[in-house]
Design goal:
alpha/beta, SDR_fam, oxidoreductase, binds nicotinamide-adenine-dinucleotide, oxidoreductase activity, SDR family NAD(P)-dependent oxidoreductase, 9 helices, SDR
Length: 250
């Protein structure tokens, strides 16, 4: 029985920020269920954690599929007997277009993956977290959810929704031992930035707005997520923690 080990579900675990989060949590002795569309990538991440001597498993699927969130919680319970931490990190960039030109199908997909996916994983995880009497949910939002982002309206609206979801859950769960916070990164080095859908002009204009004059690293996001997933945070819930190199002024 490995009941004394904390166990985390990390979505979008195969690449970028999610992969760095898995490594950071494993370095703290936390077991992991790695969830991603990318089956091979998620399996590789879980195998890396097992090599370090901790329980880990992977699940492949789309976070907007309600069955996946239920399966992930079952996998955590099967792995160590319970669930302690949910990191809702999976997300996708948008097909860039002004709102006036945005196809309904693309809008819906932005919301489904970037917002509904996080709702589904929160909903599935809450009973298991409450059963432990201790839990941490960290939702990955975005600076665009605070500010809006021209040519990425569906993505920005979804991330604003993640912030409202986080604030709502913070209030709903405030007396359960389950703490819910969000991080709002600005520009972080990852595959998302090199995808063809992410235009070079957008990258340059986002970079120009960061006072530190550089992109952030996935490991810098992972540090803050690990902090928010720990005992160190005990009187902050429903809050949004900025990772923007000095860009945020709110
Ligand atoms: N990179 C940035 O500048 C930046 C800025 C703000 C917020 N974010 C957010 O950070 C999170 C992680 O992004 P990243 O930068 O590491 O990007 P990334 O593309 O490197 O990683 C995203 C991961 O999510 C997975 N994924 C995508 N859609 C999925 C789905 N429907 N179901 C399951 N898995 C899915 C991908 O396969 C990938 O492994 C996302 O929520 C993103 O919106 C990133």
């Amino acid at each position: 029985m490995t009941d004394s080990i904390r166990t985390a579900i990390v979505t979008g675990a195969a690449n970028g920020i999610g992969s760095a989060v898995v490594d950071k949590l494993a370095s703290l002795g936390i077991a992991v269920v790695a969830v991603d569309l990318d089956a091979d990538g998620a399996a590789a991440v879980a195998s890396r954690v097992r090599d370090s001597g901790l329980p880990a498993t992977s699940l492949a699927g789309d976070v907007s599929d309600p069955a996946l969130s239920v399966a992930a919680v079952d996998a955590a319970v099967g792995l160590t007997g319970g669930l302690d931490i949910l990191v809702n990190n999976a997300g996708k960039g948008t097909v860039q277009a002004a709102i006036a030109d945005t196809e309904l199908e693309n809008w819906r997909r932005d919301i489904e993956v970037n917002l509904t996916g996080q709702f589904l994983f929160c909903r599935a995880a809450i009973p298991a977290l409450i059963a432990r009497g201790w839990g941490r949910i960290v939702n990955v939002a975005s600076a665009s959810g605070m500010e809006g982002l021209a040519l990425a309206g569906g993505y920005a609206a979804a991330k604003a929704g993640v912030i409202a979801l986080t604030k709502t859950l913070g209030k709903e769960l405030a007396q359960t031992g389950v703490i819910v916070n969000a991080v709002a990164p600005a520009l972080i080095r990852s595959e998302m930035l090199s995808r063809p859908t992410f235009r070079r002009e957008m990258l340059e204009s986002l970079l120009a707005r960061i006072p530190m004059g550089r992109v952030g690293e996935p490991s810098e996001v992972a540090e803050m997520i690990a902090f928010l997933a720990s005992d160190a945070v005990s009187f902050s819930t429903g809050a949004v923690f900025d990772l923007s190199g000095g860009r945020a002024t709110y």
